[in-house]
UniProtKB/TrEMBL annotation:
HAMAP family, per the entry: XPRTase
Pathway(s) of this molecule: Purine metabolism; XMP biosynthesis via salvage pathway; XMP from xanthine: step 1/1
Protein name: Xanthine phosphoribosyltransferase
Family as reported in the entry's similarity comment: Belongs to the purine/pyrimidine phosphoribosyltransferase family. Xpt subfamily.
Recorded catalytic activity of this chain's protein: XMP + diphosphate = xanthine + 5-phospho-alpha-D-ribose 1-diphosphate
CDD domains xref list: PRTases_typeI
Compartments where located: Cytoplasm
EC code: 2.4.2.22
Keyword Translocase: no
Assembly mode: Homodimer.
GO MF assignments: xanthine phosphoribosyltransferase activity
Binding site for 5-phospho-alpha-D-ribose 1-diphosphate: A128, N129, G130, Q131, A132
């Protein structure tokens, strides 16, 4: 997605540890117009996948997931990382190792929001080693629901997540695909 690549070139900063900082349009301050275009693009790419719900993980996945849900006309569920007084039992849970925070989180989704007939699209801001996606795949497996696609705003193709999703035989769409970081610059994959 050209507009997204241009924005990453303009506003992204490459940090140590292969981390791309994009906090002025995606991870802290959010650009609603760009999110709208991102949502429309996901809706276009998964239009034939029969999606009934979108799953993501709080907090950075929520903005693109909600916009995709708006364009697809389906509800969006975000897995919670923190225990909540109103989220007590009857949960699907999975363990996720956080790439940026370097800690393990339990993520949870209330069982009431997933039905066996659901075909879900997993949406997230980044795909790095695939731990967040794997946690949602684990929940989907326990809930016996079909994962019909994975859509990420930015993938770092040189890390393990891309292969993990491909090996699971799931349609993967990344709106910007990073092949490498070289001398503090982003190199996009060509295809
Ligand atoms: P994974 O679980 O695929 O290893 O990492 C994906 C999660 O870690 C995303 O939900 C995202 O929040 C965070 N993450 C991974 N790599 C980056 C990065 O380069 N920049 C930012 N801002 N977040 C990242």
């Amino acid at each position: 997605m050209k507009i997204l690549e241009d924005r990453i070139r303009r506003d992204g900063t490459v940090l140590a540890g292969n981390v791309l900082k994009v906090d002025n349009f995606l991870n802290h301050q959010i650009d609603p117009q760009l999110m709208d275009q991102i949502g429309a693009e996901f809706a276009h790419q998964f239009k034939d996948a029969g999606i009934t719900k979108i799953l993501t993980v709080e907090s950075s996945g929520i903005a693109p997931a909600v916009m995709a849900g708006l364009h697809m006309g389906v509800p969006v569920i975000f897995a919670r990382k923190h225990k909540s007084l109103t989220l007590t039992d009857n949960l699907y849970t999975a363990k996720v190792y956080s790439y940026t925070k370097r800690v393990n989180n339990d993520i949870s989704i209330d069982r009431r929001f997933l039905d066996k007939e659901d075909r879900v699209l997993i949406v997230d801001d980044f795909l790095a080693n695939g731990q967040a996606v794997q946690g949602l795949l684990d929940i989907a497996q326990t809930a016996q629901i079909k994962v019909a696609g994975v859509g990420v705003v930015i993938e770092k193709r040189f890390q393990k997540g891309h292969q993990l999703v491909e090996d699971a035989g799931i349609q993967l769409e990344a709106l910007a695909s990073i092949a490498a970081f070289e001398d503090g610059q982003v190199v996009f994959a060509q295809d």
